[in-house]
Automatic annotation (TrEMBL):
InterPro entries, alphabetized: MFS, MFS_dom, MFS_trans_sf
PANTHER family: BLR6921 PROTEIN, MAJOR FACILITATOR SUPERFAMILY MULTIDRUG TRANSPORTER MFSC
Transmembrane segments: 54-73, 85-104, 110-131, 143-164, 170-193, 205-225, 231-253, 273-298, 310-330, 342-360, 366-388, 409-426, 432-454
Main location: membrane
Pfam families, alphabetized: MFS_1
Protein name: MFS transporter
Location in the cell: Cell membrane
Membrane topology: Multi-pass membrane protein
Amino acid sequence: MSSLAVGRAGRRTTRVWPLFLVTGLAGFLTTLDNTVVTVAVPSIQRDLGASLAALEWVATGYILTFAGLMLAGGRLADVHGHRRVLVAGLAVFTVASLGAGLAGSVEVLVAARLAQGAGAALILPATLAVLAGREERQRSTGVAVWMASGAAALALGPVAGGYVSQHAHWSWVFLANVPLGAVIIVLAAVAVPAGEGGAGGGRELDGGGVVASVVFLGAGTFALIHGGAHGWASVPAVVALIVCAGGGAAFVVAERRAREPMVELGLFRVRSFAGGVAAQVLWGLGVNGVFFYTAIFLQGVLGFTPTDSGVAFVPLALLVVVVTPVVPLVGRWLGAGRTVAAGLVLVAGGMALAATLEAGDGWGRLLPAVCAIGVGSALTMPLGSAVLGAVPEPRAGVAGGIFSVSREISGLFGIAAVGVIVHASGNFATGYAAGLLVAAGLVLAGALISLVALP
């Protein structure tokens, strides 16, 4: 008898822990490379003689292609099959990681980082799509594992990058991906059923929608990166915003005209889908601003060492990992809406606590804020399952792409938004506190949306 059966509602039931392992490891690997390189940048500059402009591309090139190509990656998974696209993305990411680790010039390193991001853009939507066909409890558990792995990677990235840079050559930041990537490829080939995806509501790729989405998301991502670093009035940022607006308009027109659109715009009229994406965006706005500016605050105001400031995020990651296995049970007890809302209230409370930190404060005042954010972030895990459960399975890849790109873009926007408040205040500590309080308010808005939109 086949190990694959069909559940009562048409959802497949199977032994899914190998599948959870694949999606968790893939999510961890791709998210880790968002932040792991930042601490290694000084070593890269010394070895390769890179300019500051080139170093910016080393740090942000991955995010640019990752976010810009994610919707296209989701559609490819729906059309050509989840396993095929997942394995292809892992192969691209692994080979690009090898190229980055062996790079002898900054130009080769930047090209490898761009290729890494392209591979990740195929991986992340496909990992969510392979969970969409599970029955509800399996889907909830799998998405919780996927989201927890991403949150843990986001917190541990600077710690891992700092440790590798201090005790080994910076190239190992990238070379360490190679054996792990190879292992995940083998696991994916075994654990992900070959027949999943590939229907996609039709064999058409919707080329116009793909191109427009890449222009829209790529230009928007570039604008957020460049505007935050060099000012929103700078020529590249202004041009990128104009291109982004044009790409967005072209995307809407292309999707309305396409016989088989990449994104069914009607999905956003589904309350749980639109509400889940909105709540995810508001969580990302707050949490990513906390990660980025708290690291600066800990060193510049509280006097933490770089190592201590990295270690400060470890409890957050550990709590996400520890609390996540309990979250599906809590979700079934309280419902997804109340569980996510409670989590977002905790996250907002942690931000408000962090906003009260002053020079001279230490671990005793920092840890309650970090722990509240960690537990609260874990409780938001039902978001992903609610979003996937609201769409037809043939659109799961695109749904996963929308959910993933909303997390990525909201993170960049959160850093940029908090940065505007910090720089406008004229005093970093004051601006940091004000930025966190604004971010906390946005997260509370996400809690209200969750109560109304999610089941």
